[in-house]
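G., the chain you wanted modeled:
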Amino acid sequence: MQTVENRNIHKRTRYYQGMIDLNILEKGENYKSLKKSFVIFICTFDLFGRGRHIYTFENRCIQDTSLSLGDDTIKIILNTKGTMDDVTPELKSLLDFIDGEEPRDEFTKELEAAVKTVRKNEKWRLDYMTLQINYQEKYEQGIEQGREQSNRQSALRMIKAGKLSNDEIALYSGLTTEQVEALEEIFQRKREKSFE
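Predicted structure as C-alpha cells:
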C-alpha cells in the first residue's frame, strides 16, 4: 500500500515484476513455466489524476493497441480517491475501508476483525515494530549516504578549482582532512591518466 506520492511507483512495478519472474523461474527452466502474474499497488491518492479507482496495465503494441504482447503480466494501480463508477461495490467498499472509512460489508467487517486480532498479538506487534525500526534505519542510512556523497562532490569541486587548502576544503565540506587528501589523490591520478 502506498500512502505517499512520488515513490517512483511506475518504475517499481517493473522492478517487482522482474523479481516475481526471477523467483518463479528456476535456473535453466523453460519460460513457458512462467504463470500469469499481477503487481498490485493500493494508493491513498490518485497517481494519474484521472479519477479512476482502478488503472490496469498490460504490454501492448504502440502501433496497434489491439495487439497484446501476451506476456501475461498485469499491473494494477488501485486508488482510494477515485470518483468514477468503475469498480464493483465490493471493491469500492474495500478501498473506502483502506482509506479509513467504517466497514460496510461482510468482507471489510471480517478484515477489520482480522486487523484487530493482529494488533492484539504481541509477537506480530513486535515483528511489525522491528520491521518499522529496520525501515527507519535504512531510510536514515540512505539520507546519511546522500549527505556524504554530496559532501564528497562539493569537496571534489573545490579540489578541481584549486583555490583552497585541504584543511579549508575539509572545513567547508564537512569531510575530514584525510578524506579530502584521498579525494585529491584520486583526482590527480585521473588527471594524469587523461594526459597519457
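Residues 9-87 form one domain.

Shout if anything looks off.
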